[in-house]
Amino acid sequence: MIQPKYRRSFGDLSERALAFWLLLPAALLLGSVALYPVVRLFYTSLFQRRLTDETGSNPVFIGFANFAQALSDERFWTALWNTLLIVLVTVPGALVVGLLLALLANLPFRVRWPVRLGLLLPWALPLVFAGLIFRWFFDSQYGVVNDVIVRLGGERLLWVTTPDLLFWAICFSIIWKSSSFVALILLAGLQVIPKELYESAAVDGANRWQSFWRITLPLLTPAILVAAIFRTITAFQTFDIPFAMQNGGSSFETLAMYVRTMSIENLNFGYGSALAVLMFLISLAVTLVYLRYVRGADD
Amino acid sequence: MKKLFWLLVAVLVMSTALAQQTRLRVFVGGQQRPDVMRKILDIYQQRNPGVRVDIEVGGATSDQQQQYLTTVLASRDPSIDIILIDVIRPAQYLASRWADTLDKYLPAASRQNLLRQYLPAYSQANVINGQLVALPAFADAMFLYYRADLLEKYNFKPPTTWDEVIQQAQTILQRENNPNLNGIGYIGAPVEGTVCTFLLPIWAAGGDVTNAEGQFSLTVEQAQRSLQFWVSLMDRRVSPPNMAEKPQDTIRQEMQAGRWIFGTLFAYAWNRFQNDADSQVKGKIGVVPLPAFPGGRQASCLGGWQWAVSDFSRNKAQAYRLVRFLSSPEVSKILAIDASNLPTFPSLYRDADILRVNPWFGQALPVVQAARARPQHPRYAEISEAIRVNTNQVLARQKTPEQGARDIVNRLQAIYSGR
């Protein structure tokens, strides 16, 4: 009697070959929507290409001249500096506010869903809507912020058109918008901290403050790091909120806003691509730090 | 079985009929009354059974529409055949080769005959380097809107000079003593309309960005005087201190809510004041040509929209035929009656049907005829940005008028010399 031969449904494929074929569709998809545009961006950044003259249809290869131009472009450095300021203020800001929100949501309320819903709503709101809402809040004549200031006996402030005030108004809006995302990650982190630790700390006579510093914060550090890295990457790409709050103007311009103006408005695709490549490299650097951290955690 | 056979035959016949039909796609902005445009396209479809025209509606402002169109056209997408473009764009569309030039369909003589019928400003705006880039859809210009009821209450006549506007605003603001009432509204946010704000006093004083030969000719002094004028309205408290926050449609909405005595706005505002359900100022608004500037003449800023055929269209000849219809006196009249769009044909400003709906069109013709065009340049977007951002910063008191003027002139000089 001949034993029926065991047949794999995918023919005689080895484990490796099967893995290859199964991963191929995803790899093709990612390649076409993520890898190809990035490669194309690098390629375009090496050309002089303005859609407003003949280089639009016949780009001229100029090597790294666009990058040299960027490094001596005052507007690029201002935009980079503005972006860094946003990162430096809104990342710690969102972490602190997000932590407070997470602690609040983790309290043993009888009805939890209103707090959780309140946490989710800012996160679910599209960025540009948040920008428009806060633009209205900070309107000098009809905004609620100035209304409160006037009721408290203060002077009306021109939030949107005074550079320093605009910066803080933008940071405030970004922190409001992004701290709920931070809070969601931290809340997940809080919920895996074993209750027994707090109970035994209480038995040992620790007060709430001590158990927060000695138990909660150390055990939450991995979650805080993840949140911080995610927030930093998105903060480097800040665009929607400052754009919407300034009516599309560029008194306060981030790197992403400069890239958009240069390519989509001024139609200078070569130089705009070079700026985008620089922005990509910065994001990549931050992401590598993140990957290194994730690897470290796995080991 | 027999039934099925005939059904199949019917389906076949219908599908070949459909296949023979030309489909055209027209792009218009959300603010340009797509409902009225649809009505006009329906008329064309009725007369041309072989053509089906779809309409694609874009964003509300010229900038928003162009952002989308840039993506479509830079990727050579053939899906749009005809585009309604702002008067500031033909030069860029030609330079980018996004528009199919229309000369090939029109012998030189008939081109001249055709263009002669339009307001001269529009035949000029659409001919770039001797090539016909687009044909006019409707005209537009800036006007001074005023609260007729308030002026009447204090026995004022509609103003003809800015000094009168300032004086009337001062008196009315003082006597009304209403904290929600503002004086003179002008566009000051970093948006396209602010380019007009900046250029108006310069035109009135006889200056311009370029001279007759198209060379850059704006001086720091001219620019500074213009910026100084708009800042002085805030200094004299006839305009609120937050003019740098105001795009055109915000002033329109606020005026509609009864919060402005004067507003410098394009023609579209009239229809909204008179017909919008939420308008608090129905029948209380008057409109006159923009006043004369101190020591200068009257000037207005030319707006208006043009029909261009996309160079990536697969039905250019059919698209051209439709553009000829869309830029005809017949359509101009429908747009004037149904959408209060100013006609591009001078003769229509005396048309009784149009005047019945828009009585003020009678006075509008000299304004549109005298209105000045913003610079025509392939890199207009950069010119516009330099002007509107700097003007905005001066109004926000981040820069002095002198500094703002110097920055504008330096940047424009660089663009005009190809840097």
From TrEMBL, chain A:
Transmembrane segments: 20-43, 79-105, 117-138, 165-190, 211-230, 269-291
SUPFAM superfamilies assigned: MetI-like (SSF161098)
GO biological process, one term: transmembrane transport
Classification via Pfam families: BPD_transp_1
Protein name: Trehalose transport system permease protein SugA
A cellular-component GO term for this protein: plasma membrane
Gene3D superfamilies (alphabetical): MetI-like
Coiled coil: none
TrEMBL record, chain B:
A Pfam family that the UniProt record links to this protein: SBP_bac_1
Key words of the record: Signal, Transport
InterPro entries per the UniProt record, alphabetical: Bact_solute-bd_prot1, SBP
Signal peptide bounds: 1-19
Gene3D superfamilies xrefs: Periplasmic binding protein-like II (3.40.190.10)
Stated family: Belongs to the bacterial solute-binding protein 1 family.
PANTHER family: ABC TRANSPORTER PERIPLASMIC-BINDING PROTEIN YCJN-RELATED, ARABINOSE-BINDING PROTEIN-RELATED
Protein name as annotated: Putative ABC transporter-binding protein
The species this protein was found in: Meiothermus taiwanensis
